[in-house]
């Protein structure tokens, strides 16, 4: 076969291949739909009220098992990090905290950033020699934290972690509310003021008064007025709280107040429905108001940060699926 025939044959074969191959099969195919899906700049899970207990008793197993299940469930979506916004444990003992850390190490697959909840101070009820200071030291040591309140930057997202600084000393007067020192308030103000403009996510276990999940008079932060005033001066702040366990899908758990977007986190361990119906197992809280626990449920939030928006999803871990509830916050 001479060279001209070889060239002609090659051209014919190429034309036939172009006709036979589908676009997805050709060497120069356009990207598949999966490849064209927009990827977030950052994504992370936000959990709360895990309530791990180290005692190997049936009544205490759900906290540990549900925590492990939630972390494995979120790991499928490759988050950059996980936040656990307080009440990692029920009693706050060194053994409880150690188990919570062990579960995180085994199942998270990414960094985990915690805040302290009121239950993480509870070991004082069992151990007279325990104290708020010892509870804090144990928490910091277990999770290798530099301080009780701290901030981080991840892929353009500013993360601010706040924690209640007293429990047992304030409990008779403040109940289960969060108490923050003036030093922490000043640090929060300076951190907001000195940071460049960016999407900012704030985490505090107890909600601010009059925002989300306020089912008791003693659940909010004592310094709610000061904290809201500080946050309201800055755009694009998203504030997450837990503590009340109110179902994350409830309408009350996504509100905007003075420009700040507030979201309740439900509970990994046991979400609660706030209802006017005295259903079996419900607990009366005020006139015509009942709290109904859902021990079979387990839920958290999942955040995706894009250049022009923040997307907040609700993950139903007990079903391994997404809620229909999706919140979008524009950034432009």
TrEMBL record:
<dbReference type="Pfam" id="PF00149">
    <property type="entry name" value="Metallophos"/>
</dbReference>
<dbReference type="InterPro" id="IPR029052">
    <property type="entry name" value="Metallo-depent_PP-like"/>
</dbReference>
<dbReference type="InterPro" id="IPR004843">
    <property type="entry name" value="Calcineurin-like_PHP"/>
</dbReference>
<dbReference type="GO" id="GO:0016787">
    <property type="term" value="F:hydrolase activity"/>
</dbReference>
<protein>
    <submittedName>
        <fullName>Calcineurin-like phosphoesterase family protein</fullName>
    </submittedName>
</protein>
<dbReference type="InterPro" id="IPR051918">
    <property type="entry name" value="STPP_CPPED1"/>
</dbReference>
<feature type="domain" description="Calcineurin-like phosphoesterase">
    <location>
        <begin position="44"/>
        <end position="246"/>
    </location>
</feature>
């Amino acid at each position: 076969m001479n060279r001209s025939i070889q060239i002609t044959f090659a051209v014919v074969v190429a034309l036939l291949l172009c006709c036979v191959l589908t676009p997805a099969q050709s060497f120069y195919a356009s990207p598949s739909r999966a490849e064209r899906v927009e990827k977030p700049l950052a994504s992370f899970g936000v959990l709360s009220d895990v309530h791990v207990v180290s005692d190997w008793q049936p009544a205490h197993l759900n906290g540990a098992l549900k925590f492990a299940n939630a972390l494995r469930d979120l790991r499928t979506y490759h988050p950059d990090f996980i936040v656990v916004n307080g009440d990692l444990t029920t009693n706050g003992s060194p053994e409880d905290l150690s188990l919570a850390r062990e579960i995180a190490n085994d199942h998270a697959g990414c960094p985990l950033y915690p805040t302290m909840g009121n239950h993480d101070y509870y070991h004082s009820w069992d151990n007279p020699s325990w104290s708020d200071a010892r509870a804090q030291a144990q928490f910091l040591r277990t999770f290798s934290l530099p301080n009780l309140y701290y901030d981080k930057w991840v892929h353009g997202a500013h993360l601010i972690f706040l924690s209640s600084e007293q429990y047992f000393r304030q409990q008779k007067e403040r109940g289960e509310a969060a108490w923050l020192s003036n030093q922490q308030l000043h640090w929060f103000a300076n951190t907001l003021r000195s940071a460049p403009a960016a999407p900012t996510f704030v985490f505090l276990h107890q909600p601010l008064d009059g925002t989300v999940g306020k089912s008791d008079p003693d659940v909010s932060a004592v310094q709610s007025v000061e904290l809201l005033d500080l946050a309201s001066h800055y755009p694009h702040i998203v504030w997450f709280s837990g503590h009340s366990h109110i179902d994350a899908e409830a309408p009350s758990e996504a509100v905007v107040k003075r420009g700040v977007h507030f979201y309740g986190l439900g509970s990994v361990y046991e979400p609660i429905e706030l209802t006017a119906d005295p259903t079996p197992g419900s607990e009366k809280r005020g006139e015509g108001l009942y709290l109904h626990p859902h021990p079979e449920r387990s839920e958290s939030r999942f955040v995706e940060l894009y250049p022009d928006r923040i997307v907040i999803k609700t993950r139903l871990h007990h079903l391994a699926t997404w809620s229909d509830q999706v919140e979008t916050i524009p950034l432009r």
